Amino acid sequence: MRDGSGEDNNVAPSVYSHVSRPGSHRYKNAKKGLPFNLMLIGESGLGRSTFLNTLCERSVVPTTNVPNPEQAHIAEPMQFKHYSVDMDEDGMKIILNIIDTPGFGNGTDNETCFNQIQEYLETQFDEVLGEENRIKRNPKFKDSRVHAILYFINPTGHSLREIDIELMRRLGNRANIIPVVARSDSLTPRELVLFKQRIMDDITAHNILVFNFPNSEEDDDEDEETVEENSELRAMMPFAVVGCEEVVNEDGRPVRVRNYP
Question: How far apart (Å, rounded) are the C-alpha atoms in residues 215 and 235?
Fold first, then answer.
């Protein structure tokens, strides 16, 4: 991963990495960097910013303090905030472009939020279509279509709420939705298992389209290890995440941890 000084840590690619395959798409993009556009959606207080900082192992989104505590209850309108982080995965540079949505779900009527996100996704498609229809294309044009949406679910321990169902139903055919249980450490292991099962039952009952890791058993291009990994990932959905901001020194290296009383 690239550190704060902008220098690479020169991580050698794994022998199982697609980077080591000269004919692969990843190999061709290893030097110039492969962009990945990720949107984070979830209500305030579910740890989106903390998760992003944990994922990138650096402070991407700074901690914000309310200047006037008496106004902390006032809901701010939803915004789109953009961040870009250079990362290194198995020797390949990844340009992670994050679209955060602070203010989502803070009001009693979230119809405006739904429409804003839907319009944003469709605008990115329109821009790409417009560029492809040009006689002379812009070589510096950047494809800003969202590759995946991480949707943070409130760990109620019960089932999906109406806001969860409506949001995922509207966006399921426009982007790859990956549902995650936020602050999953607020549930016991047994509660978490049951909650995840109820979520998947609701997703099936409401015909919600979420990203399903491909089952490539009949694809000759995929090795057995990839097929097995995809199968394991499908069984883990929805993913449970826990973020942390505290960094401690363990065996001479910094490690992000979450301390409990």
Answer: 12
Q: What are the residue ranges of helices labelled H in the chain?
A: 25-28, 48-56, 111-132, 162-171, 189-205, 224-236
Reading the block at residue 204, the tokens are: 């099936």
Residues, the chain: 261
Q: Are 184 and 192 in contact (CB under 8 A)?
A: yes
Element spanning 253, H or E: strand 253-257
What's the token pair of residue 18? 């697609």
Q: By mean pLDDT, which of 5-14, 125-134, 148-157 is the weakest?
A: 5-14
| Residue among 184, 35, 189, 172 nearest 99 (CA) | 35
The answer to whether residues 69 and 15 touch, using CB atoms and an 8 Å cutoff, is: no
130-139 contacts at long range (C-beta below 8 A, 24 or more positions apart): none
Q: Which SS3 state, helix, strand or coil, does residue 231 take?
A: helix
Q: What contacts 18, CB < 8 A, 6 or more positions away?
A: 24, 26, 27, 90
CB 158 within 8 A of CB 130: no
Q: So what's the pLDDT on residue 28?
A: 55
How much is the average pLDDT of 6-13?
44
Q: Is the pLDDT at 152 greater than 90, yes or no? A: yes
Task: Please report the DSSP string for 131-167 in residue order.
Answer: HHT-SS--TT-------EEEEEEP--SS---HHHHHH
Q: What is the end-to-end Cα distance of the chain in Å, rounded?
A: 32
103 vs 2, more confident: 103
